Amino acid sequence: MALAEAGLRGYGVELQPLNESHVPNLIEAASDGNLWELFFTSVPTPDTMGETVRRFVAERSAGTVQPFAVCLSDAGQAVGVTSLCHIDAANRRAEIGYTWYAASQQGTGINAACKLLLLTRAFDDMGCIAVEFRTHWLNHRSRRAIERLGAKQDGILRSHMIMPDGTVRDTVVYSIIASEWPSVRMALNRRLTMPR
User: Fold this and answer.
1) What pTM value is reported for the model?
2) Around Cβ 150, how many Cβ atoms within 10 Å?
3) Nearest Cα to 71, choosing from 112, 10, 118?
4) How far apart are CA 130 and CA 141, in angstroms?
5) Per-residue pLDDT of the chain (196 residues; tens, 9 = 90+)
6) Which of 27, 36, 158, 164 has CB 3.0 to 4.6 Å from 45, enough for a Cys bridge?
7) What residues have CB less than 8 Å from 61, skipping those under 6 apart?
8) What are the C-alpha distances in Å from 54 to residues 19, 51, 59, 99, 119?
9) Which parts of the sequence belong to the N-acetyltransferase domain (predicted)?
């Protein structure tokens, strides 16, 4: 089975290759906190969720993105989205991004589990030499979460992109490189197996 078609499972989450059957659950998940109203991130509205999922599925065919529905292993219901994106096979690099979770799932450990699964795919299965993370300068929660993973800040892309509401975003870029992966993996495994 091709990597882009294979799901990932562990630590109470299952990353299922994103498809249109996930749309109803994703609308419900995004509505948990009205996530599309957050100015520092881009979460599809209920009206645009189907279109967004179809776009990701089409991009998966091009080999530059592996989008996943984040599902709870015990319930099977999608509670968010994450992906390996901007895959650059020639330079053995990828980014983990387009990530969001229902408000009720934030702070539960689901993010660390998803990131461990995606980092394992990127470094161990795809042979990446670096994995990047990007977030809005003002998304302090996301920045702290990325830093807790063990990623290091590479820099800030100032006036990097125009957000849907017309504001201009400064983007903070982080990465984990292959030589750091063994210690990052060990720390994430420890974090996920310790009692909460």
Assistant:
1) 0.90
2) 18
3) 10
4) 23
5) 245 567 899 999 999 999 999 999 999 988 876 677 666 677 777 888 889 899 999 999 888 899 999 999 887 789 999 999 999 999 999 999 999 898 888 888 899 999 999 999 999 999 999 999 999 999 898 899 999 999 999 999 999 989 878 889 999 999 999 999 999 999 999 999 876 6
6) 36
7) none
8) 7, 5, 9, 16, 25
9) 14-152
The string of DSSP codes covering the chain is --GGG--EEETTEEEEEP-GGGHHHHHHHHHTTTGGG-TTS----TTTHHHHHHHHHHHHHHTS-EEEEEEETTT--EEEEEEEEEEETTTTEEEEEEEEE-GGGTTTTHHHHHHHHHHHIIIIIS--SEEEEEEETT-HHHHHHHHHHT-EEEEEEEEEEE-TTSPEEEEEEEEEEGGGHHHHHHHHHHHHHS--
Please report the domains of the chain, with CATH numbers, ordered by start residue.
3-193 (3.40.630.30)
